[in-house]
């Protein structure tokens, strides 16, 4: 867990120093104008220009695959300017520093989630000083921030710290949201750093403890073909009394013993764009051995059965044609479904079956001429976390000039801000007296759901339709639950 914050005798000049947590340099995130350091747990509080008190509060958890990113990478200034709401964003430890899960006292796991909980406790204690209502806190986030947001609803450690959640493109039971085998992941990562004595636990732990902080940072995104991440939240083994999870999400939901807070959850219509950068690298490999691309939280009794399921899935998405440039939209559907869409559908199903009756489901599909065209096509789609970009400003560290946007996109941003704000204040997405259609809570089949596009209308049928049924049949039969790191013999620290 993070240490208590410092105490100042004199007033602190709390200017934004652009501090970010230690992370690898990747093509996905420009951190060249930031200061990367270990002491990185800073929060930013955005307050509207009003004398009013008891304002609703939105805490935003940033995304970045639990490996990259920072609190203010997408500014909320325009949202705060147009709505009477306080927004808090913040940093949390990432990658090996935030999510190494050895199950030892030195690295019990979930340090990054413990930072998130510490921030929520800070907000609860202090937000009244900024004009906020400590009893009216909503948590939201995109991608890994969405998974974090949704996961926190299942943890006793975060209970009572918020009253509503808005997960944007990522669910609590996403394959990427939770380590399947943390010790195995720690060994894999150590090998990437050229450490070979991975089967000696004491040596492995000592390697991580004795290495300099920056020397053990390398990007772990590469070749994650099975929708898993090396570093993510984990199931802890009980060595730390301040654990976040001592069970795995599917089981927690099925038991039903968690605080069921109102939830506004949804996805973009083309979530699989998050894997577009791998298309040229993966398309031939997918034709050679498609089974390597099945989600990592599936386990088969035999290799033959795995190949049979793999053949069925490949034919479902790609027909009898090979994965190639003319099938790039099917590629986007496939990865969108296994990483984001189906886990969202399945999560809604499990929560509703556990008695949760306040889940509002949507698909965001707005595009305009500024939306990039998918390579090899003339098609545009709402990509991964497009709804987060609509809510917020979209440019790191600066407030975006929204006057240059198309009139349609300006209107979409207003609508999204209305819906998010109304949900944060009234626990319902549609404002009273609005011309928007009535929006009821979702049932276990993924309906109703709202389509948020150039028009706002109820979606056709059930969300994800036959695609959800395909994966549900597979997961009912082959789902593999995550495990905690094994308990080790007592070692001297």
UniProtKB/TrEMBL annotation:
Pfam families according to UniProt: COesterase
Domain of life, per the record?
A: Eukaryota
Enzyme class, first EC level, given as a word? hydrolase
InterPro entries xref list: AB_hydrolase_fold (IPR029058), CarbesteraseB (IPR002018), Carboxylesterase_B_AS (IPR019826), Type-B_Carboxylest/Lipase (IPR050309)
Matching entries from SUPFAM superfamilies are given as: alpha/beta-Hydrolases (SSF53474)
Q: What does the UniProt keyword field contain?
A: Disulfide bond, Glycoprotein, Hydrolase, Serine esterase
Q: Ranges for the Carboxylesterase type B domain?
A: 7-457
Q: What is its EC number?
A: 3.1.1.-
**One GO MF term attached to the UniProt entry:** carboxylic ester hydrolase activity
Give the family this protein belongs to, as stated in its UniProt record.
Belongs to the type-B carboxylesterase/lipase family.
The name of this protein is Carboxylic ester hydrolase
């Amino acid at each position: 867990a993070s240490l208590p914050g410092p105490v100042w005798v004199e007033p602190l000049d709390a200017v934004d120093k652009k501090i970010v947590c230690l992370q690898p340099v990747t093509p996905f995130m420009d951190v060249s104008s930031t200061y990367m350091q270990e002491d990185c747990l800073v929060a930013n509080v955005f307050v509207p220009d009003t004398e009013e008190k008891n304002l609703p509060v939105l805490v935003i958890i940033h995304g970045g695959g639990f490996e990259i990113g920072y609190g203010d990478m997408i500014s909320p200034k325009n949202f705060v300017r147009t709505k009477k709401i306080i927004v808090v964003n913040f940093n949390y430890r990432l990658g090996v520093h935030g999510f190494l899960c050895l199950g030892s006292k030195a690295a019990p796991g979930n340090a990054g989630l413990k930072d998130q909980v510490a921030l929520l406790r800070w907000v609860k204690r202090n937000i009244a000083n900024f004009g906020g209502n400590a009893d009216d806190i909503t948590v939201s986030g995109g991608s890994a921030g969405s998974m974090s947001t949704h996961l926190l609803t299942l943890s006793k450690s975060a209970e009572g710290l918020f009253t509503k959640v808005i997960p944007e493109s990522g669910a609590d039971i996403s394959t990427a949201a939770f380590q399947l085998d943390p010790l195995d992941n720690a060994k894999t990562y150590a090998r990437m750093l050229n450490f070979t004595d991975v089967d000696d636990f004491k040596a492995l732990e000592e390697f991580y403890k004795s290495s300099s902080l920056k020397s053990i940072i390398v990007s772990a995104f590469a070749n994650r073909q099975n929708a898993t991440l090396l570093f993510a939240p984990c199931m802890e083994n009980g060595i730390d009394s301040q654990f976040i999870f001592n069970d795995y999400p599917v089981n927690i939901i099925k038991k039903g013993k968690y605080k069921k807070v109102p939830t506004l959850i949804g996805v973009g219509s083309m979530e699989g764009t998050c894997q577009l950068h791998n298309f040229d690298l993966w398309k031939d490999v997918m034709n050679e051995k498609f089974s390597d691309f099945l989600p990592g939280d599936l386990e088969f009794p035999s290799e033959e059965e795995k190949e049979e399921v793999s053949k069925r899935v490949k034919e479902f998405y790609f027909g009898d044609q090979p994965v190639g440039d003319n099938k790039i939209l099917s590629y986007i559907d496939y990865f969108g479904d296994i990483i984001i869409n189906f886990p969202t559908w399945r999560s809604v199903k499990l929560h509703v079956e556990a008695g949760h009756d306040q889940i509002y489901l949507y698909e965001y599909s707005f595009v305009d001429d500024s939306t990039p065209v998918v390579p090899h096509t003339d098609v545009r789609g709402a990509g991964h976390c497009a709804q987060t970009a609509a809510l917020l400003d979209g440019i790191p560290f600066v407030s975006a000039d929204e006057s240059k946007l198309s009139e349609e996109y300006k209107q979409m941003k207003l609508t999204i801000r209305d819906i998010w704000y109304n949900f944060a204040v009234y626990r319902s997405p549609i404002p009273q007296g609005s011309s928007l259609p009535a929006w009821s809570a979702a049932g276990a089949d993924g309906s109703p759901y709202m389509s948020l596009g150039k028009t706002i209308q109820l979606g056709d049928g059930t969300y994800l339709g036959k695609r959800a049924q395909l994966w549900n049949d597979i997961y009912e039969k082959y789902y593999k639950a995550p495990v905690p790191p094994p308990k080790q013999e007592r070692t001297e620290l």
